[in-house]
Design brief:
The chain has 223 residues and is of the alpha/beta class. Helices cover 35% and strands 19% of the residues. An eight-stranded parallel sheet has the order 1-8-7-6-5-4-3-2. α5 packs parallel to α6. The protein is globular and about 40 Å long. The model has no long low-confidence stretch (mean pLDDT 98). The structure holds D-xylitol-5-phosphate and zinc ion.
């Protein structure tokens, strides 16, 4: 199991975006989490292809694109073309999840499926063997800086157990409200891909990234 910190660009200072991404890369961050919102699947609107295309030219990090958009199948090719290395879609947003997953796979990038807090992982058990990552949202998708939903810990544990029972090797990603306090909970529950926005970008970016990566590696060494 590979444990990684996925800084979420949503919390970046967009006036200094290039510089901040450089800082993360210098800190050894491998994956950047990129939140795309459409104002329909979620209430807010973030950014889209032109921004991703532009940072792709400057960054060597891998791009983990989290699509919080209705019918994401329509845009798979566009996000691959602008530089995504992995595309995650919401189970709730797809008319045909299997077809959407197949389309992402055919486009040659990694594929993740996300579930909102109210969606059970058992509802999508049929797809788990066909994907590269399961994203368990630990807040309602749509905004950075929200409080971790406590029930998520049990949900992650149950998903991890279910995957073990079914003998499926699948990393669990968590996203929302992860900070120095909630990090041990999600790691212990079985998550290995840790998305964090506000707790990485607020204040000393390099220092935060270094510290959170260290906490994750310390756990990984013991696990
Ligand atoms: C929320 C996004 C998250 C968000 C996390 O819908 O998917 O990636 O940026 O932000 P924090 O870590 O601040 O909760
Ligand atoms: Zn996200």
């Amino acid at each position: 199991m590979e444990y990684q910190l996925y800084p979420s660009m949503l919390s970046a200072d967009f006036n200094r975006l290039g510089q901040q991404l450089q800082t993360l890369e210098q800190q050894g961050i491998k994956w950047l989490h990129i939140d795309v919102m459409d104002g329909d699947f979620v209430p807010s609107i973030s950014f889209g292809m032109p921004v991703i295309k532009s940072i792709r030219q400057e960054s060597n990090m891998l791009f983990d694109v989290h699509l919080m958009i209705t019918e994401p199948e329509r845009y798979v090719q566009d996000f691959v073309a602008c530089g995504a290395d992995s595309i995650t879609v919401h189970a709730e947003a797809c008319e045909d999840l299997e077809r959407t997953v197949a389309r992402i796979r055919d486009a040659g990038v990694k594929v993740g499926v996300a579930v909102k807090p109210a969606t059970s992982v058992t509802d999508i058990s049929y797809i788990l063997k066909d994907i590269d990552m399961l994203l368990i949202m630990t807040v309602q998708p749509g905004f950075g800086g929200q409080k971790y939903i406590e029930d998520s810990t049990e949900k992650i544990c149950q998903a991890r157990q279910m995957l073990k029972d079914e003998k499926i090797e699948l990393p669990i990603q968590v996203d929302g409200g992860i900070n120095r306090e909630t990090l041990p909970l999600v790691l212990e529950a079985g998550a290995s891909q840790i998305v964090a926005g506000s707790c990485v970008f607020s204040g000393d970016l390099a220092g935060n990234a270094e510290e959170i990566r260290r906490l994750i590696s310390q756990y990984a060494e013991r696990a």
